[in-house]
Amino acid sequence: MYPTVDPITPTGISRRNFFRFAAGASALASLPILTEAHLAYADRPKFADPNKGIHIDANENPMGPSEAARKAILDITPRGGRYLFTGEEELSEIFAKQEGLSVDSVAPYAGSSEPLHYTVLSFTSKDRPLVVADPGYEAPMWAAQVSGAPILKVPLADPTGEARHDIKAMLAASTNPGVIYICNPNNPTGTCTPRSDIEYAVANAPKDTVILIDEAYIHLCDAPRSLDFVKEGKNVIVLRTFSKLYGMAGIRMGFAVGRPDLLKKISSFGGMNALPVTAVAAAKASLLDADLVPTRKKIIADTRAETLAWLKKEGYACTPSESNCFMLDVRKPGKEVQAALAARDMYVGRIWPAWPNSLRITVGTPQEMAAFRKDFTAVMNSNTAAFVAPKLPKRLQDHPHTHLS
Fold it and tell me: Which of 17, 131, 283, 285 has the fewest CB atoms inside 10 Å of its own CB, making it the most exposed?
């Protein structure tokens, strides 16, 4: 059994401040839906002009929406005075048909962060823990704080090698977990968990446990998908997003895929509001662009391979990523290196307490990664001990997400 622990606390966000969001009867209404962007911003050494410097810290896609998606946004804008619910239905139908799903097993959301939080809120409690990998994406842990659920963090298996989810240890962590969260490929390591391990989790979890499989980065790798578990009626919810490969992080569109009864339960927490017509149109155009996924997958893979090869040549260990991010062992306190890079307007990802000497690096454009190599070399050849991340202004300490609304 792994101990109950607090979620990772980003810089400037204390447990006390977090619970200000969740106090009293309005706890669920005031719950911040944390995304990768929130967590990345909260952990930056300083708040920088987003138009200045290089930002490879939030697993964004610098290519942005595809040309077809941009055109769709322009074309739909004059009709933005209408709710256009039929667009949401058409989008769900297109995705369901492409994936061989029934349309009632697909629920569109403004990104995948909302259904992630709602799933944890729906199926965990003080008696039903959340089980996650460590290091892993922190957002579900914040939701578990609101539901009062214990958080059981299980170290990744083979951390210096494949760095994959330790499925058997995750199953052994609790006899009655509410949710077992599997991010595949994993954020922050970019590594994939074998299909056989995920099958084992689905087959051996307690009958009322929900396996939440976050496939935010699935388009970037060759790992088998998990939507077939939904077709088979398993206790599985799969999350998909348009934020990563499709380049729509700032536009917000995603899906929760699961049995209708599971989707109905999570919908009680939210997600029934009209979605932005621009996001729906862009997502539809993206799904209908047959060349988009393979083209972008190759661009990102080639840039990632070049960067990892260079780091290996320089003697640095990285996780064997199949995604648009990886963990880089800098062999010294990661906070120092992060702050030293930020002083050069090079913003890299945050540090996980389980791996304090590692930084998460997002794969940017080839030009951005060339600049990263130059700045990283300079920083690692210098004394980084003098670099300390400044504290957030008091206003942001008290209200850490208001500036992002």
Answer: 17
Q: Residue 318 forms beta bridges with which residues?
A: 328
Cα 156 from Cα 355, distance rounded (Å): 11
Q: For residue 203, what are its two tokens?
A: 């087959």
Q: 218, exposed or middle or buried, with CB in 10 Å at 0-12, 13-18, 19+? A: buried
CA distance 343 to 360: 17
pLDDT score of 47 more than 80 = no
Average pLDDT, the chain: 88
pLDDT of amino acid 272: 74
| Structure token digits, residue 245 | 């490969």
Residue carrying the six token digits 């259904």: 115
Distance between CA atoms of residues 182 and 307, nearest Å: 26
Q: Rounded to an integer, what distance in angstroms lies between the CA atom of residue 168 and that of residue 158? A: 13
CA-nearest of 301, 360, 283, 296 to 10 is 360
Residue positions counted in the chain: 405
Give strand pairing partners of 352.
355
Q: What is the pLDDT of residue 18?
A: 39
Q: What gap in Å lies between CA 271 and CA 404, rounded to an integer?
A: 20
Euclidean distance between CA atoms 266 and 188, whole angstroms? 26
Q: Evaluate if residue 158 carries a pLDDT over 60.
A: yes
Cα–Cα distance between 387 and 66 in angstroms, integer? 39
DSSP 30-81: T-----HHHHHHHTSSS---TTSSEEESS---TT-S-HHHHHHHHHHGGGTT
